[in-house]
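new request in #modeling-help
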Amino acid sequence: MAKTVDEIAEAMYNMIKEATGLKKLKATDLTKAIIELYGDEADKQLCKDAIKQLVNSGRCVYTYFGGSFIELPHREGAAND
Amino acid sequence: MADTVVKTPKLDELEKGKWPSFVKEIKMAAKTSPMAQDLLGQLELSYEQKLGHWKHGGIVGVMGYGGGVIGRYSDMPDKFPNVSHFHTIRINQPSGWFYTSKALRTLCDIWEKHGSGLTNMHGSTGDIIFLGTSTPHLEPIFSELTKAGFDLGGSGSDVRTPSCCVGPARCEWACYDTLAMAYDLTMSFQDELHRPAFPYKFKFKMSGCPNDCVASIARSDMSIIGTWRDSIQIDKDAVAEYASRGMDIKADVVDNCPAKCMEWDGKELHIENSYCRRCMHCINVMPKALRPGKDRGATVLIGAKAPIIEGALLASVLYPFVKIEAPYQQIKDVVAKIWDVWCEEGKNRERIGEFIQRVGLGNFLDAIEVEPVAEMVAHPRENPYVFYEEYFEEDETAEEQK
Ligand code: SF4
Ligand code: SF4
């Protein structure tokens, strides 16, 4: 049975959390990892919707360091108060 | 109004000469903007020390969007507190950069209220650029911009704000409606523009004719350049008038034709259209006498980029000729396939042109299900670099039969 957007968002959130401090993940990394994890139960559109949900809810943010990544909100090193 | 107090002997040098000077503009803004004053101070210091003093921050943006704001901080916030934050905002420009004066005033009012007042109309991406604001102002700026009918543009690994030449709005050479297409692609790819999901950036640029006023052939991942496939329209009387007024048609037109497909016998101009490369040279020189043909469309090219990570690339032909009509389905379908393959196989920060070079054009065409054609060449009528399997099959069969 196809996974729901909520389930995929939760799985992505956990992947991002686990990778924090080790590796920055891009939308393509998350999509590939989810499709590998869930096979036919997930597709690219569901992954797109899950990322949208994570970012729109503020649980994750887009960041840019040469390329665009999806991370947990944090205070970045370069920022001045 | 207080005069700028910052002494800038090095920057002053950049005001000399006849050309416009960004220093002059910043000084003007510095009369009312403390941010612009500190910007002058920090810049002068950078010129003195030969050292940049900006740090790039990657997390600033507006809620839900992954592009449109480029974070920047001073690494000397104590000395230059007013540029401690100096973020850039990209705003999606209207197709062809047409504004009412009211719209321009609205933009400037928003920016004077929330930022340095310094703009760049327009950046090399085509967007309206607002230079210099702080993080707490980002959401209010976004909200005022959207109320005024504007939206942020692209930045990061997403579709960059599509941009086009003025096209049929002002230019008689436009072979298709560049403005309509830029608007349509912008609206169709909103998700891809605001939510970065690619290995790297992807730019669309649309030029109405081969003069390519937006330099799409060198500056965009997908370049859509207007062209025609029938014959150049000739007004014989107008050609004769050019000649009678002293134009040296042989030297200025015929001899400069890259295809050497024109003849001028002193009375009549003849063009062998099957050899014409649609370069626009003759039309540009004799605009009253020559016009593009009537069967118009565009050539779609792929893979150009400016040098950032690797060297510059010029675009290669993907479709020699397509009719350009809304809703542009043929182009949208191939774009979807290109993005699929590139997202699947592309490396981080690899532009589509670099990706094609890495996997080979033949494999790329296979993956996006586009048949190779003879026009996919590095230079017109030379150097075919497409692998034609059937030729090899024929050769192999001939070998086997020996
Ligand atoms: S690219 Fe061609 S159609 Fe567009 S503005 Fe330039 S000359 Fe005109
Ligand atoms: S458009 Fe260019 S190639 Fe064609 S006839 Fe004119 S000068 Fe020659």
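bot summary: The interface with chain A takes residues 55-61, 63-67, 70-71, 73-74, 77, 84-85, 135, 155-158, 191, 195-200, 343-344, 346, 348-349 of chain B (CB under 8 Å).
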